[in-house]
Amino acid sequence: MMQILQAQGSSMSMLLMMVAIFAIMWFFMIRPQQKKQKEIQKFRNSITIGQAIVTAGGIYGVVKQIEEADNALMVEISKGVVIKIDRNSVYADAASSATPQK
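-> structure tokens emitted (102 positions)
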């Protein structure tokens, strides 16, 4: 009888440890990543014409047109050069991602 109780106690402590590890991982890793993704999506939805952006590929440009039907943006990357990109490939606002040179 004592061995059965010890086995159940061992199983219970192992289960509690697994739950605790998952909770810690969720709190420190998954939750912050979800918050960051929500912020990026909020930024993508608030893009306006004339705004300077950076794509996930590192291309800097200015939004010239927004095509809601295709979920795409027409971005001028150089004078007279306009490319069409998917809105989900926009990573950041170019003004906030620029770092000052020393």
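Residues 1-46 form one domain.
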